[in-house]
Amino acid sequence: MDAPTYLPLLNSIAVNEAKGQCLLNAWADSTRDTQLAAVLRFVAIREGEHAMAFEKRMCELGHAVNQQSAYQFFKNFDEQLAFLRSNASDAEKVTCFRGDAPRAEGEQKDPFRNFLADTTMDPLTGSLMGRYVCEERDSGRRLKAEYDRVCGAAPRAAEIDELRACVEALQAEVSKLKSLRSVA
Question: What kind of fold does domain 7-153 have according to CATH?
């Protein structure tokens, strides 16, 4: 029997989800932010479960996970792991884990949009893949919310105070201009 055409995808998911679990747990162990740690651990549990579920499915299909042939999502895994274990700030770790600068909401591409495109995928694998895609999207939303919180995506109190001071200065200038206009 030939290997299913989607086997490389299953293999890559199994390999990279296991690495993701490792990275997220390392970060959770090193942060002092209990809210962030809780989300990191929750997503890490999912990553580990995904790794095992896809490895199990590959075994059911008569194939073993192959680290060498898998697409390597984490190009510098050992360096990332060491960094996430370090005492660097969580904001610095967000940059490391997320990679390049975040794009605007409308510009983000869904990396999972083609995961069910292979029409030869059997129903059991398709069901597993569907659950995986939905959980990954949810995990992404949870991590993004924490990343935004940690990095201060919302305006900080000092920024708000500075904006208030600017508004007050503008209001004072407008009042002066109005008084000059009424004199003239």
Answer: Ferritin (1.20.1260)
What digits encode the pLDDT tens for the residues 151-171?
985 555 565 667 777 778 778
How far apart, in whole angstroms, are the C-alpha atoms of residue 20 and residue 45?
Answer: 10
Kindly compute the dihedral angle of the four CA atoms of residues 163, 167, 168, 174, in this order, to the nearest 10 degrees.
Answer: 160
Class of residue 1 by CB neighbours under 10 A (exposed 0-12, middle 13-18, buried 19+): exposed
What is the per-residue pLDDT across 23-56, written as a single tens digit (0 to 9) for each? 999 999 999 999 999 999 999 999 999 999 999 9
Q: Going by C-beta distance under 8 Å and a sequence separation of 6 or more, which residues neighbour residue 94?
A: 147, 150, 151
What is residue 40's predicted lDDT score, i.e. its pLDDT? 97
Q: Which two tokens stand for residue 33?
A: 């932010």
pLDDT score at 153: 59
The domain locations on the chain are 7-153, 156-184
Report d(CA 80, CA 31) in Å as an integer.
Answer: 15
Cα dihedral 54→57→61→65 (10° resolution)? 30
CA 130/CA 142 separation, integer angstroms:
19
Residues 140 and 136: their CA atoms lie apart, in Å, by 6
